[in-house]
Structures are given as C-alpha cells and as structure tokens.
C-alpha cells in the first residue's frame, strides 16, 4: 500500500512540510521518495537560503543511500558551504558525517578522514553529544577502511562509551553494531595473516548479540535483521554453524516480511556458505547459481564477486574445471567493472570537489575585488574631498556637506554657526622662516581645529592660510567659546620649537545662519566679521553684526 507521503501533491505542500516529509522518508528508509521531496523543496520559488541548504543536506543523505555518490557529494558540499558561512556547527557536523560515508564507500579515504575530523571538531565546538557520537562512529569506520583496525576499535569504543550516556535508542544500537563490525574486520585481517582471531571474533559476537537483543526489544525489524546478518558472519567464522543457520533463517523471514531486499540477498549468500561449510557442495553450488540468476544481484557487485569466487573454488575442488574457469572469468569481469566504476566515481567526485572549491575561491576573489574597488572608490572620494596638506575637508567637501546642514538649520531643527579663520601676518612666516615652516604651522593648526570640533561639525581649508569651521547644532555663544579656545591654543603653542623666534596668532569671524539666508550671504557675514577682527588688532573673535570681542590677556 502506498504511504501518505507518496500520494500528496508536492504543489499543495509548503517548503517546510516537504522538508519534514523528506526527513520522515529518511527515517523510514524510503530514500527515492525522500530525494524527490527534497528536490521539490529545493526547486521552490520562495525557498529561503536556509531551506535550500536543509534540502541539500537531506539530498546528500538520500543520494548516499541510493548509491548516487556524485550527486551526494555535490549537494553536500553546497550545503556545507552555507552552514559554514552562517556558523551552524551542528549542521556542519551532520553534513561532514554523510560526506565521510560517501568518500569511504568510494575508497577516497583521505578525503573521508578530513570530513570526519571536520565533523568531530564541529560537534565538540557546539557541545552536542549526539553529534559527537556520530562523528566518532564515522571516524571509526573511516579508520577501519584505511586499514587502521586498532584506531578504529579505539574510536568505536569511545563512541560506545558516549552512547551509554545518551538516552537515545538509535545511537545505542549503532554503537554496538558498528563496534562489533569493526572487531569482525580486525578478525578478518588477522585470519589473512594466519594469526589467531578468536579474541576479536568473540568480542564481536558479544557486541552483536547485545545489538540484536536491543533491536528486538525496541521493535526495530530493520536493525534486528542487520544485526542478525552480522551475527551469522561472525558465527560462520567461529565455526558455530547451527546457531548461524538459525539466525540466518530468522533474518530471512524478517527481511522478506518487511521488504529488505538487499539484506535478504546477503542472507541467502550466507545460508549458501553454511551449506558449503557443512560439505554439501552440490547443494551450495545450486543455491549460489540460483542466486546469480536473481536480477537484483546485479545491484550488489561485492556480493556478486563473492558468489563467483565461491563457485570458482567449489567447481575447481570438484574437478569441474570448465565451470570453474567460467566463474573465474566472470569474477574478473565483475572486479574490473567495480574497479572502473570506482575509479570513475573517484575521478568525478574529486572533479566535483575541485570545481566547488574553485567556484568558492572565485566567489571569494570577486568579493575581495569588490571590497578593494569600494575601498579604492572611498580612497579616491576621500582624496577628492580632502586637503592633501592638512587632511581637513576641502571646498568640494564643503559644497557636498553644507546644503543638508543648512537644511536642518533653516527648518528650525538645530542652529548652525560658521567661523572664518585666518592667520595673522602669515606671509611674514613664509618670508622669514620658509614655506616648509609655513606648511608645518598649517598642519599643527589643523590638529587644533580637530580638537574643538565634533564628528558632526565640518572643518575646511578654504585656501592658503584661511579655514572655515561649521558648527552643527551650536548656538552663537557656544561657537564663540570654541573659537576663544582655539585662539588660546594657537597663541600658547610652543612655536619656538618649530622654528626659533616663531610666534603665531589667528583672527576669527563668527556668524549664525539666519532663517532663509543664502549660503553666500551667511559666509559673507562671517568673512566681514573676520576682517573686523583683523582691523581691530587681530588675535581676537568678532561676531557678525556685533562689536568685536577682545581676547583676554595671557601671560
């Protein structure tokens, strides 16, 4: 009977609902359906960047389970790029784990190792114990594939210890099953080296019995069938054929009842191996030949190779050399096909990885170039609006900034005052001490101007030794006080340290902007006040339209 998810029209579901259904399909093992749901979510016109990344993460897992490693890696790298950019460590760890499995399945173990290290680092950084468990479990698997069985056992043991602290059925089963499988791999390595493998085999048997019992208690038929399959493999190695046969038949019943076709094929091969181990070669041969005629067996190349090898050995031992040769040739063809397919997958996956990295670097380069262009534009803009000697604003900056400052003042939002400043007898400074000293005087005075102005004010060098200060949101009285402080600073500065005998003063004219006054009329009033200060003896502040204010005497 078709499940609810399969009959729901994708157009009627929201993107979040599609993602939820895809995740549920993953838990139910319905990866073709889950992949379709994730693809529909990814294609949604209103999908956010986060929803697209989540869809890619789900596609990574579904494509892995469907054996589409190229699409798995492509989607996984895109998802990983987004989660890295936004700093989602938990999602990074999950995607790293899935990519590690894809690269392990295609024998790209060094790449897989980089991903499990990334998964473990991200999991520990975000403090998620379940994510850390999965990273440890996948790391154990990768080290096992790399032939480092002791390290694989060590990591698997760490994963099991962590799982025992978690109230999570799935991690408990996976920890037992994976560590048991790791011990089985270690045992096979020892057998191949003619070493005693009884220790690892018995360790594996204990773990698998516990895993099978846990799955049965949890009512999880898939996990139970998987554990039974592993149990049969261990018992065959230990020579405990009767118990292996019992578990094999039990697993076949479960796999057939629940449609676990891949596991059923594995169990059939195990049952045939048990018949062979009991010495009934003709019966075992018949079972294996029957299994080879199953069209589904073509989807299991490793099992296909195992069957051809077993049949080759049995026919050779029975003196049926023609049949033995046929199976040897078929074994060679299967192995060659697997090698070519693996090499092709490896090449394509590496190409995908390189292309993704290249695209990421190109994006980063274009972003960097854009930032550099903005910085250069800002620099050019700054140069265009800045006096090169004093680093104060210039006339161009005044033309740009003054209109909006005047608009605020004329709307009655805030008062605005202008102060025209000019050095007293500056020509004598240049003539007597040189233009170099004159430039130093101007730069020192520019620093003084910065000390009496705020970020909202404007300090401008309008030409030669003449400056303009525009005080925003400042009354005439406050602007006058600021200018008095400037006069005192200039008058009291240690000019003798710049050039022996040097002394400098400035004169200032201040005007407050009046309603509806033009900029030219306003600045003309400030300029007239400046000349009034000059004509009245210099080194003083004059207010536009008012009497000259004499600066206080300083000792």
What are the key terms here?
disordered C terminus, 6% strand, single chain, 22 helices, Serine Threonine Protein Phosphatase 5, Tetratricopeptide repeat, disordered N terminus, mainly alpha, 555 residues
In short, what is this structure?
The chain is 72% helix and 6% strand.
Outline the secondary-structure elements.
Blueprint: H1 4-7, H2 15-27, H3 31-43, H4 49-65, H5 69-86, H6 89-105, H7 109-126, H8 129-145, H9 149-163, H10 169-192, H11 198-218, H12 221-238, H13 241-258, H14 261-277, H15 281-292, H16 301-317, H17 321-384, H18 395-410, E1 416-423, H19 426-433, H20 435-452, E2 458-463, E3 466-472, H21 476-492, E4 506-512, H22 519-535, E5 541-543, E6 548-549
Parallel strand pairs: 4-5
Antiparallel strand pairs: 1-3, 1-4, 2-3, 5-6
Write up what this structure looks like.
The chain has 555 residues and is mainly α. Among the domains are: 10-86, Serine Threonine Protein Phosphatase 5, Tetratricopeptide repeat; 296-339; 359-388; 395-549, Reverse transcriptase/Diguanylate cyclase domain (Alpha-Beta Plaits, 2-Layer Sandwich), CATH 3.30.70.270. It has 22 helices and 6 strands. It has a 6-stranded mixed β-sheet with strand order 2-3-1-4-5-6, with helices on both faces. Helix 22 (519-535) links the parallel strand 4 and strand 5 (541-543). Helix 2 (15-27) runs antiparallel to helix 3 (31-43). The longest helix is centred in the middle third of the chain and has 64 residues, at 321-384. The model is unreliable at 1-10 and 546-555 (pLDDT under 50).
